[in-house]
Structure formats: C-alpha cells, structure tokens
Amino acid sequence: MSVRPTTWPQWWSQLRPWGKPVTAPRARLLIAPHSGAGPNRYLRLVGGLPDDVEILGLTLPGRERRGTERPGATLDEVLASLSAVSPPEVPTLVLGHSMGATLGLHLAHALGKQCVGLIASGQEPRYGAGWLSETSSDEDVLRLLELGGDLPSAVMEDTGWRTALLDNLRADLRLGTESAERSRGLRIDGTITVLCGEEDRLVDPDALAGWGAHSVAGSEVHLLPGGHFALFDPVNRPRYVEAIESRLAVTAVRPG
Hints:
Layout: H1 8-11, E1 12-14, E2 27-32, H2 43-46, E3 53-58, H3 75-80, E4 92-97, H4 99-111, E5 115-121, H5 138-148, H6 153-157, H7 159-181, E6 191-197, E7 219-224, H8 237-248
Parallel strand pairs: 2-3, 2-4, 4-5, 5-6, 6-7
Antiparallel strand pairs: 1-3
C-alpha cells in the first residue's frame, strides 16, 4: 500500500488561537484525538498551557480541514507523518484519548528518547479489536457513541452528517485495531499517566493499571468525575493541564 505524503499542514496543525506558531518552543505536546474526531475539539483543553509549549494536533483524513479526503489511514502512515514535525528536537509529550491513547503509545515509542511520556486518557491497554470491528452494523456503532455520551441529536437527524461520521468511525476502527494488535510488548521510557472518568462505561477501571507494562518508568492512574469524555468537562481541565505540565517539567535539559 502506498503511503500518503507527510507534509506538516496535512497531518499536524498548531492548536493555538489562529494557529499562531511558537517560534522557540521549550517543549512540544502532540495530541491524538478520539475516534471520529479532529484535534480542534482539544483547543480549550490545552489552550491555557504556557506560550513556549508548542501544541500540535493530528488530523486524520476525512475530518476538519481534511474533510474532502477519503477516510482511512494506516498506522505506518501516521508514524511517517512524524518526520514532518521532528525539528526542532525538544522534549515531547503525547496525549491521546480513547483510540488516540493506543495510537499515542506508538507515537511515543517512535519518538524514542525525545518523548518524556504519554498521557493515556479514557482507554485501557488494547491488543486487538475492542467493542466493535469494521464489520459491525451502523446501529452497533451508533450505540457505542451513545454509551460514550457523544452522539449529538443533529447527527441522527441529518443523513449526510450521519454517513460522514460512520465512514470516519469505521476507518478509525480499522486503525484502532491495527494499532492495538501491534502494541503488544511495546514499551516507552517515559511515565504513562492514565486519566479516566470514574463513570466511563467504555473502560474497565481494573485494566487501567496495565498501562504500566508499556513503560520502563511505570504508570500512574487517576480517576476523575464523569464519563468517557470527562476530559472536556471544565471541572477536569485543571487536572489535565497539571498532568501535562508536570510531565514536561521532568526534563529540564533538552534531549540530544
């Protein structure tokens, strides 16, 4: 299979107001969104970080500014896109939510010593297909969104939106399954910080400690009020910002 071009504007974008670039970053945060979503939804979550932290969000084909592209990406394509954001080499933290957490593990591993850790949000370690597969019915896919509490009524009422969402979700189910199958035995050097809503109906809280097997430095688990999308609750925003800043503060000297 051919690999798509990996130019900066295609896969990664600045998550700052008006896309304002950071000219001399001391650190970088990479965000891997949840299934069916693009990075813009995470702007409020991380918008309060210091100005010298560069924030980049991953946009997969079929969403936001890539909405005209056919949905679907392979893990190798996503990892190849890192070549477009490698310079300058500064301490880098990865934050991924739901499927993005599994994808984030691979991004963190690919970054090597440059990565100071992973924030795995709303996801337990996965090694194969999760609740659904790409052959699941539309009703099953939408029911999963209902369980997660992220199914706007407007989607159900608009055939076009519903079709686009289902296409993106099925593409992400393929990517999520591939990422999970290839994550067995994968380990990173930095600590994995696990954040999850205590009422998340898509996650087994007893399985969250399993993230520790993916890090030489181990993991720490924190349960927050709310469900699968607790990270978007303003009440929990300070906990995420604190987790990000504490991990970036671990490395005072830039790698290399």
